[in-house]
Amino acid sequence: MSNVAIRNLQIKLGENKVIESLNLDVKAGEFVVLLGPSGCGKSTLLHSIAGLIDTSAGQIEIGGKDMTWADPKDRGIALVFQSYALYPTMNVESNMSFGLRINGTPKAEIARRVSRASDMLQLGPLLKRKPANLSGGQRQRVAIGRAIVREADVMLFDEPLSNLDAKLRTELRRELKQLHKQLGATMIYVTHDQVEAMTLAQRMAVMKGGVVQQFDTPDVIYNTPANLFVATFLGSPGMNLFKGELEQQGGKTIFTNEHLSVDVTGYPFKQPLTGKHACVLGVRPEDIDVGHSDGVGQAVRASVSLIEAMGAHRVVWLDFHGTQVAGIVQDQQLIETEREVSFSIRTNRISLFDGASEQRL
To answer: What is the CATH number of the domain that holds 72?
Structure first.
């Protein structure tokens, strides 16, 4: 197992700065996910770790050694691409062992590694098949197996499940998690899919514009987002946002706007606030109590504009004075569109962001 340390990394593509002064520490044996929208620099960062893209400045350390300018073959990494990149004329066994054969690995060692990887990925019955005779999920397993047989200390994944259907993605996601437990290798995984990130990562780095916005465990990032971007990027439906002001009233801290008044006295502010302060109140849909009050927040009225049945729960969209508010309803209470209902905010689960900087208060 090797750690990966990135120091003040800068990458330019032409005149465009894709990544600027990025720092990231991945512990040995850790599963880290790089999450962000298309164009945020996450794949560029992964490819720079792999040695496929030159850095403009900064340093990349793998296992305590400076690998900034090392050739990809000397970095002790294995890379799984979004496209399977299998050799069509070779069978599964040959695809998995090709790199080892090129490197002159003894036949007995090649057989041991291929057997171990095929057992892990349930590829045994498919070893003599060619890629054309495999499903998408099976091809991706072969691509992952080709990386496993290298027995690299660091494994890099560039959106490996994005070409698969939803059911296969779920199955392979579970297998990747199990694979990490078995191998104990350091894994860095790129995705724009928040479900993949939340379920796979021990820690995840949320990126925007080549900058890491927050690097922490999935639970911390979901429950205490560092800024508005992180808050709105994670969650489906996204976090509900209300613009307003914070002010002190009779020893209490109150969030107010034209239609809402919420007591946020118990909120864990990073710094004490004085006077009025422009802010944004954020609350997850599961913390909007629709149809009745749980006694935590003040109930207000809104019109039901849409109901989405999701099987185990319903997403109820409310029109609150022109603002669309999403609430998740778990019970079987009768809620109908075009009818008014009450809703309240569970104030012990809110987030507050500065109105100007958009950083968490």
So the answer is: 3.40.50.300
